[in-house]
Amino acid sequence: MQDIDTEIKDLIAVIIEKDPADLDPSARFVEDLGVDSMMALEILAAIEKKYKISIPEEKLSQLTNLNDTIKIAKEYLAQKNA
Amino acid sequence: MLNIEDIRKVLPHRFPFLLIDRIVELDPNVKVVALKNVSYNEDYFSGHFPGQPVMPGVLIIEAMAQASIMLLYGSKNKLEGKKLAYYLGSTKIRFSYPVTPGDQLMITIEPVKMVSMAGIVKATARVGDKEVASGELSFAAKEL
Hints:
- The complex is a heterodimer of chains A (82) and B (144).
- Chain A is mainly α.
- Chain A has helices spanning 4-16, 29-33, 37-51, 66-81.
- Chain B contains 2 helices and 6 strands.
- In chain B, β4 and β5 (118-127) form a beta hairpin.
- The two termini of chain B are 28 Å apart.
- Classes of the chains: A mainly alpha (82), B alpha+beta (144).
- Chains A and B meet through α3 of A and β3, β4, β5 and β6 of B.
């Protein structure tokens, strides 16, 4: 089974249409990868669907790179499993 | 139920591009059902196609997008009274049957993920019992 980091990386790569191998964990979504606000919402929705979690709207602006996104996803996943 | 005047208060679209006639059902944050009556008098039928009138799929998508705005507006109180512009972000729609003059297009929009100024929704268009188009679209509103 893949770990969560890899799963989220692959999921984001599909949405932003990049090769997962080219997705640097600290590359900024908007400035470096050309992600727009609609894609950010799609990323949020895809993570919620995959892990059956609910991430509040306020967190949307914190999805600025892959590392932060994984961190937030894990945080809500841990809450769910707690 | 919302009539065309209610819709005109929300949507900035006007003739010939206001593509929903009535909101049959609006359940905030859950779903909206919009009605579009397709008449032979629609301008595009003269060219799409001569002798074989079919409603262009992109216009079905546009009607879905307009219904989606009604759902967002009806679900988020914060939008009321604001001057807004609307953007379609992406679409993934499959068309199953042609829509022709006389058809009553019934569009159902349900949120996949909706935030205060944007949404991803599941859209289904039916004529009678038949599903003619369905899929997903994302859109956003921006204050002017």
